[in-house]
Amino acid sequence: MPEKMLKFISLDKEMPKKRDAKNRKQDFHEIYADYIDAKAAEQSSRCSQCGVPFCQQHCPLGNNIPDWLKLTAEGRLEEAYQLSSSTNNMPEICGRICPQDRLCEGSCTIEQSGHGTVTIGAVEKYITDTAFENGWVTPVKPPKERDQSVGIIGAGPAGFAAAEQLRRLGYQVTVYDRYDRAGGLLIYGIPGFKLEKEIVLRREQYLKDSGVEFVYNTDVGNTVTLQELRQKHDSMLIATGVYKARDLNMPGEDAKGVHAALDFLITSNKLSLGDKVERFESGELNAEGKRVVVIGGGDTAMDCVRTAIRQGAKAVTCMYRRDRENMPGSQREVLNAEEEGVKFDWLSAPSSVVEKKTGGVKAVKALRMKLGLPDASGRRSPEPIEGSEYEVKADIVIKALGFSPEDLPQLFNEEALTVNRWGALKVNHANLMTSLDGVFAAGDIMRGASLVVWAVKDGRDAAEHMHKYMKAQAASSKIAAE
């Protein structure tokens, strides 16, 4: 074993320096500074080079984490980038927004032994940012160009990953998106303090330089039909993500001042991109000077509470029906939110939104909860405590209970496109093909709301299956022509 490794006993875990909460909550810039070369090498050297790397096994992409940590520790950064990017189409993005505390870092062997995890995500981000700065990230140049073309509906992480993989194989790739920019939730859903928009735009430009064509403002089923796209391309991929907000299902939900999380986040992100947004200008989706209650305990809820703080909210409360230990969101994000002034109301289940006589939100009425036996998710089920009703004053209520699929058969005007009982597209899991021949699916629209890293994984897998499908189609056409 090289001397440069196994330093976890002599070196403590050290994350990149975090900006002071008082200063960072004034803007939407990322909160972590970059590693310098020496510090990245030092933290990488803490890796124990396990014979069975649990970090790699708990990464959906199976990233070769110990290997690129070793290369980083040895100062071989370009090789580290080549290895990192061989399994991940956007390591600089996953390094920023993956919940490493639940995945690779949470499974780190030295973390389990009490020495503190290797800072895998921060090193992953550093490697690829350094690669871009040094010109090591070069556009895709396939060994040969193919005549067959692919259409991808959705310019989010699954669409990005599939587009790159298919270009590497020489296919002509066109990505369609209903928004005016590419990136999906990366550009419009995730706030800049977690992922600055220039990082997403840089990845989009890389794909354009690689020969991927982007067509914006394309609403499939309205601007163009799915059938028209199928006739134009040899294979299609649906990677639209899921955008439909889950309802609160309680009295007062339709009150003025109750908003879906994505409406709030898209508005804020558009402002960061320099757009003028009427719903913000009118004050409807502007939290400044207001009391904000966010309902939910996932990463989207954390994005909302921290955005409200930056907009200058008078008070921000996050209501969640379980306790901190049983919440689905990243514990790292909860800590960041607490540092910035968010109040967490644990074991709290909203029962209704109280309206003012003049209209608008006045408060959220809730019940105190206690935890019972574990449910199907493995977390303890919340149970109401009788007679524990109370109110939290609010001017804005944000629903952050997760997302469900939109009705794609109806939106696309394609009844033959089948969905499962949750509304996600049905696929043959052996090849990710939908009920329509040559039409595949990837990401959240197939598996339900999930992580970016899983969308990247799905996009890569779908590209591989589409390649096999188109090769078979080309072979059949050749035989028929002969």
Automatic annotation (TrEMBL):
UniProt keyword list: 4Fe-4S, Iron, Iron-sulfur, Metal-binding, NADP, Oxidoreductase
Domain of life: Bacteria
InterPro entries reported in the protein's UniProt record: DPD_II, FAD/NAD-bd_sf, FAD/NAD-binding_dom, GltD-like, Helical_ferredxn
Keyword Hydrolase on entry: no
Record field: transmembrane: none
Cofactor: [4Fe-4S] cluster
Single GO term (MF): oxidoreductase activity
Extent of the signal sequence: none
SUPFAM superfamilies: alpha-helical ferredoxin, Nucleotide-binding domain
Protein name: Glutamate synthase, small subunit
Pfam families (UniProt xref): Fer4_20 (PF14691), Pyr_redox_2 (PF07992)
Domain Dihydroprymidine dehydrogenase: from-to ranges: 24-135
Start and end residues of each FAD/NAD(P)-binding domain: 150-459
